[in-house]
Design goal:
heterodimer, A: 113 residues, mainly beta, six-stranded mixed beta sheet, four-stranded antiparallel beta sheet, globular, B: 115 residues, seven-stranded mixed beta sheet, 11 strands, 0% helix
Chain lengths: 113, 115
């Protein structure tokens, strides 16, 4: 089946610290991979995506690389800000299911000033 | 662009009552998705439509849940009768075009509490 596993949170960091949120997946075939972010009281927003092995998605200082050999798509940012505090969701879209997204459980990130 | 619009934003009801959640997708989008978010189960896809036609409703929990899309600019998710375990945040999302690459745009959600 198709599933996504994320590291449990909450992750608490000081401003300007380095961020890594781990994400691994199980899928049939070669899915597309996504990171969505949910700010308090809002819906999810696409943060970045990658469609094939070794692709790197990047946006707003965040990046993630599609690693087929380790079935991973870890999210990183070199220097977090208080405004990055949110819930981060890793997701995959199995190619055989078109637009359907399978989400991980989400990881809460808290950044302290 | 107004984005995906959902109403109501908050709903409190009593067990056994009918609940109707509403969604207006982004104009021109041809896919519409309904999700449910709970602490226990995370974010689950309930049903999605393409050009107003339901494509996959395998995530709909049971017969108490129903969804319709009478036209390209409106969809409803109905729960009848509602139960306390239906308490969750319900999100609507829309996208344009077919394929795994298309970005889904989420609405702000409806927070439902069934007492």
């Amino acid at each position: 089946g198709n599933s996504v596993t994320q590291m449990e949170g909450p992750v608490t960091l000081s401003e300007e610290a380095f961020l890594t949120i781990n994400c691994t997946y199980t899928a049939t075939g070669y899915p597309s991979l996504f990171w969505y972010v949910q700010y308090p009281g809002e819906g999810l927003q696409l943060l970045l995506k990658a469609t094939k092995a070794d692709d790197k998605g990047s946006n707003k200082g965040f990046e993630a690389t599609y690693r087929k050999e380790t079935t991973s798509f870890h999210l990183e940012k070199g220097s977090v800000q208080v405004s990055d505090s949110a819930v981060y969701f890793c997701a995959l879209s199995p190619r055989e299911y078109g637009n359907k997204l399978v989400f991980g459980a989400g990881t809460i990130l808290r950044v302290k000033s | 662009d107004a984005g995906v619009i959902q109403s109501p934003r908050h709903e409190v009801t009593e067990m056994g009552q009918e609940v109707t959640l509403r969604c207006k997708p982004i104009s021109g989008h041809d896919y519409l998705f309904w999700y449910r978010q709970t602490m226990m189960r995370g974010l689950e896809l309930l049903i999605y439509f393409n050009n107003n036609v339901p494509i996959d409703d395998s995530g709909m929990p049971e017969d108490r849940f129903s969804a319709k899309m009478p036209n390209a600019s409106f969809s409803t998710l109905k729960i009848q009768p509602s139960e306390p375990r239906d308490s969750a945040v319900y999100f609507c999302a829309s996208s344009f075009g077919q394929g795994a690459l298309e970005t889904q745009y989420f609405g702000p959600g409806t927070r439902l509490l069934v007492l």
